[in-house]
């Protein structure tokens, strides 16, 4: 008996993906045009500290310990989270494609060496690795992006390798080899385009996990000190948890919805792009 | 004396919230100690019938819709879960088509047999193990003392089927259902397993319901047979009368499809007759005889009315308008 | 038996290779980092003790070619000499072993919670696919993925410590109280609840999902039908036959996740002031005690390798189908 999703769960899942898409669009819009619509400097000290949400219309979501506006912090955080999530994923997907592609296309010793390397990177506990990289190279947006990418590429490499290994055996690729098409051309015009669907699905999930890693770094104080991000806001609010728990709660809820939305869209993509797989 | 009486049994499959009968109005009796064969193509509902008798249908995908299964004057179709548990394994047991897949891969065969014994008998683990070894000897598994602690993947398909038989007979059941017991096995092993089955049957006196698509096997070991088509019984009778005088066109075609002669190695055998078409899908079964679309001698009535099983002579019954009118 | 020993040897050799490679990566990072390795490791604390740094340079042979340096580095690691912590002035390995028990306690506790919770929820969800239980459980496990661990911890503190006053939110012991042995154990347990649950919730989501999928897959297999035909109770069918087969992949999943649990432990220990390795790593960042941080990274990698090795053996023991190929 194969696991057949009921009609309802299929519907629910697609509905969920649609909902995720809506939430994601809201976050994206906020990140792009938010700063123009709500022109408040997230670092500006307004004078009123620890203002609860909904008390003062001038600060709809209240102010923090130093009197900084929470809403403007969230808007700034949306930019940072998406920027880092997308660029770290882009970087690790590129590394993953190169390493996995080389291993899967050339096989043999190349494959052996590269897969050992992948295995080693998968063994090092990734969050501790990121912490160390960021600490050693000093926190900045670039360093955070590259550090997250350094620990995130192995799953992509494994996936790409698997796809390349199987696609390489397909008749249309074999016929390209027979007619003497160049290797790079085969890789870029024949194999890679056909391997894109699972890569896109994996990448979408990776954006979510990159956002979570960045939030963790910022919470620990390992983010560019000039950047107002969601994780950092939770960290700032931690000291006044007893009296003003909303300061930590609000950015966390925003992270939660963003990550959930991206995961739902990712699962929706998975269902749409490879109906045979279950995404495990 | 009959020990099992099935009366108008209907088993339904649920597909997209609609219920389709896969066993449709089936009635038969099983006599004590006899071998009753149920034959038919794949998809005719034989296995569903077998699982219905033990009530091990894959719920909620399939369920018994109506009808009675009388065993000792108890209606198993209505029996509670706990009552069924005292019957399964102890009084009625089953062996399946794929013996390798039918054994739990992470449990030793000894433990799997002992589990059956411990469930139904008041016996210590140690004695159950001893008994498991005895049973393995009874089914002629070589090195039973050693093999008792093996895992199924270390045994061949034939050996696994012996283990299944040992397990099924552990509590001396009155009825053994063998659902395609040799289909997944090599030809040479098939004969051994069949011989073992009929030997053990005469030793233990169990009645056997043999489910198969292989008429050659039926001729070898069965006493009576039921021919099933699309969930219904189309012909029943003793092996001698049905083979000697097949009445239903479907039965005739089945018999024509048996390879004659001693086997393909001995020179040419004539081209085998094949039955054209296939069993109609569940949602394509309409009124009238289900076989009419594939039948050479169908008349107009066959497409509008459903023939019922009628006794034609002695124990021999058939559900076919043409055959019934010939006899009349 | 002979082949098992050979397999053991082969896997161990392989693991040693991985550990050496990880050490090389550490070495590489030290080299491409701005400044000289000793500057990175000690100097940045601001109070670069020249004598200590000179000693460190010498022990690293920084005046020597890179491959000799690497050799020295590896040789030190081989003797489990992870160097000195600049901040604490004691060997890094000593600090690590001092803090290790607290982290192990946290990890084991949360692992047990996650495993138990994941199995129970996964089995429940699989019993009636598509039911309200199933949908709820699937939804909750999806939530588990999306919640930042540290935020979850803080919110649990708000609810259970600050509002309800039920559970302590910080540290491992109640300070200033003298307990008997049992009292002390209970005290630690009391402090353990929140951090362990926080760390567990995150991984429970994965376990639940995998468990559900596995159960559904095993339920469809033929031996389950055989089990049912034996007259044993449905409970026994589920727990003895289905669960035992479905739980195996969870064992290997655990090996994959150890690294993640260690990373999660850093955040959780910081949030709950749990005096373990993660907390030590966090402190070392701000004390710019990179030798210590590097040591913790190396040690936790070794821990991952060891756990994976153990998981492999455990799997071979649990699943009789795994024939050890020498």
Walkthrough of the structure:
The complex is a heterotrimer of chains A (280), B (328) and C (326). With 280 residues, chain A is an all-alpha fold. Chain A has one domain: Orthogonal Bundle (MetI-like fold). Chain A has helices at residues 7-37, 70-106, 108-123, 126-137, 141-168, 171-178, 183-219, 230-238, 246-273. In chain A, helix 1 (7-37) packs across helix 2 (70-106) and helix 6 packs across helix 7. Chain A starts with 6 loop residues before the first helix and ends in a 7-residue tail after the last helix. Chain B is built from eleven helices and twelve strands. In chain B, helix 3 packs parallel to helix 6, helix 4 (125-138) crosses helix 6 (157-169) and helix 6 (157-169) packs parallel to helix 7. The longest helix of chain C has 39 residues, at 181-219. The relative contact order of chain C is 0.14. Chain C has 326 residues and is mostly helical. Chain C starts with a helix and ends in an 8-residue tail after the last helix. Chain C has two domains: 2-78, no CATH class; 92-316, MetI-like fold (Orthogonal Bundle). Chain C is 77% helix and 0% strand. The chains are: A mainly alpha (280), B alpha/beta (328), C mainly alpha (326). Chains in contact: A-C, B-C. Chain C: Belongs to the binding-protein-dependent transport system permease family. Chain C: It holds the Pfam family BPD_transp_1_N.
């Amino acid at each position: 008996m194969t696991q057949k999703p009921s009609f309802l769960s299929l519907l629910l899942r697609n509905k969920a993906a649609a909902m995720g898409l809506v939430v994601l669009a809201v976050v994206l819009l906020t990140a792009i045009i938010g700063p123009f619509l709500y022109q408040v400097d997230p670092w500006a000290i307004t004078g009123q500290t620890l203002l609860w949400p909904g008390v003062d219309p001038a600060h709809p979501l209240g102010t923090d310990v130093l009197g900084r506006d929470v809403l403007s912090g969230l808007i700034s955080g949306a930019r940072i989270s998406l920027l880092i999530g997308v660029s770290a994923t882009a970087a690790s997907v590129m590394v993953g494609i190169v390493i996995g592609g080389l291993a899967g296309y050339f096989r043999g010793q190349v494959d052996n060496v590269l897969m050992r390397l992948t295995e080693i990177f998968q063994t090092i506990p990734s969050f501790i690795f990121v912490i160390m990289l960021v600490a050693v190279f000093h926190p900045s947006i670039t360093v955070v992006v590259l550090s997250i990418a350094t620990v995130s590429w192995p799953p992509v490499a494994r996936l790409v390798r698997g796809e390349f290994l199987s696609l390489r055996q397909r008749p249309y690729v074999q016929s390209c080899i027979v007619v003497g098409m160049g290797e790079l051309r085969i890789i870029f015009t024949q194999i890679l385009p056909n391997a894109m669907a699972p890569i896109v699905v994996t990448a979408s999930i990776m954006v979510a996990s990159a956002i979570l890693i960045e939030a963790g770094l910022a919470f620990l104080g390992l983010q560019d000190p000039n950047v107002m991000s969601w994780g950092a806001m939770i960290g700032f609010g931690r000291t006044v948890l007893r009296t003003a728990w909303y300061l930590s709660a609000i950015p966390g809820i925003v992270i939660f919805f963003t990550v959930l939305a991206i995961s739902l869209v990712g699962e929706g993509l998975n269902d749409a792009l490879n109906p045979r797989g279950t995404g495990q | 004396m009959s020990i099992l009486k099935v009366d108008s049994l209907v088993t339904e499959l649920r597909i997209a919230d609609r219920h389709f009968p896969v066993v449709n109005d089936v009635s038969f009796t099983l006599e004590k100690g006899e071998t009753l064969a149920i034959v038919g193509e794949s998809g005719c509902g034989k296995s569903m019938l077998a699982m219905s008798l033990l009530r091990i249908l894959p719920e909620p995908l399939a369920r018994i819709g109506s009808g009675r299964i009388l065993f000792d004057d108890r209606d198993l179709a209505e029996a509670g879960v706990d009552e069924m548990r005292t019957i399964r394994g102890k009084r009625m047991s089953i062996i399946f088509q794929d013996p390798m897949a039918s054994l739990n891969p992470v449990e030793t065969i000894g433990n799997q047999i002992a589990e059956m014994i411990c469930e139904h008998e008041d016996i210590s683990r140690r004695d159950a193990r001893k008994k498991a070894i005895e049973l393995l000897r009874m089914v002629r598994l070589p090195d039973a003392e050693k093999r008792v602690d093996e895992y199924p993947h270390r045994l061949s398909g034939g050996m696994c089927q012996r283990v299944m038989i040992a397990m099924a007979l552990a509590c001396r059941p009155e009825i053994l259902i063998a659902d395609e017991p040799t289909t997944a096995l090599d030809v040479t092993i098939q004969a051994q397993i069949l011989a073992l089955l009929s030997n053990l049957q005469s030793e233990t006196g169990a009645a056997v319901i043999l489910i198969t698509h292989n008429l050659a096997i039926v001729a070898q070991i069965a006493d009576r047979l039921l021919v099933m088509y699309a969930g219904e019984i189309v012909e029943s009778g003793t092996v001698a009368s049905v083979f000697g005088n097949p009445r239903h066109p479907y039965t005739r075609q089945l018999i024509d499809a048996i390879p004659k002669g001693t086997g393909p190695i001995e020179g040419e055998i004539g081209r085998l007759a094949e039955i054209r078409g296939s069993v109609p899908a569940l949602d394509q079964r309409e009124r009238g005889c289900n076989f009419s679309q594939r039948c050479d001698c169908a008349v107009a009535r066959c497409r509008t009315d459903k023939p019922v099983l009628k006794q034609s002579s002695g124990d021999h019954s058939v559900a076919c308008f043409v055959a019934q009118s010939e006899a009349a | 038996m002979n082949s098992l020993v050979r397999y053991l040897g082969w896997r161990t050799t392989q693991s040693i290779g991985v550990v050496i490679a990880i050490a090389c990566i550490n070495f590489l990072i030290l080299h491409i980092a701005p400044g000289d390795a000793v500057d990175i490791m000690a100097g940045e604390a601001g109070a670069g003790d020249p004598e200590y740094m000179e000693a460190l340079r010498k022990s690293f042979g920084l005046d020597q070619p890179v491959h000799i340096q690497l050799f020295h580095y590896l040789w030190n690691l081989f003797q489990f000499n992870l160097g000195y912590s600049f901040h604490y002035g004691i060997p890094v390995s000593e600090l690590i072993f001092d803090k290790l028990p607290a982290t192990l306690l946290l990890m084991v506790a949360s692992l047990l919670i996650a495993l138990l919770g994941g199995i129970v929820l996964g089995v429940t969800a699989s019993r009636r696919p598509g039911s309200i239980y199933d949908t709820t459980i699937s939804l909750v496990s999806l939530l588990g993925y999306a919640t930042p661990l540290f935020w979850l911890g803080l919110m649990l503190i708000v609810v259970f410590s600050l509002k309800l006053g039920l559970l302590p939110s910080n540290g491992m012991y109640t300070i200033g109280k003298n307990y008997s042995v049992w009292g002390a154990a209970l005290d630690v347990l009391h402090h353990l609840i929140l951090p362990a649950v926080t760390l567990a919730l995150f991984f429970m989501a994965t376990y639940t999902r995998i468990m559900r999928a596995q159960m559904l897959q095993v339920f469809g297999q033929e031996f389950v039908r055989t089990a049912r035909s034996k007259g044993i109770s449905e409970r026994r069918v589920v727990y003895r036959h289905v669960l035992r087969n479905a739980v195996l992949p969870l064992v290997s999943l655990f090996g994959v996740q150890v690294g993640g649990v260690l990373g999660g432990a850093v955040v959780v220990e910081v949030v709950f002031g749990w005096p373990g390795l993660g907390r030590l790593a966090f402190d070392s960042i701000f004390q710019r005690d990179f030798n210590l941080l590097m040591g913790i990274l190396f040690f936790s990698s070794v821990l991952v390798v060891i756990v994976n090795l153990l998981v492999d053996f455990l799997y071979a023991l649990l699943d009789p189908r795994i024939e050890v190929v020498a």
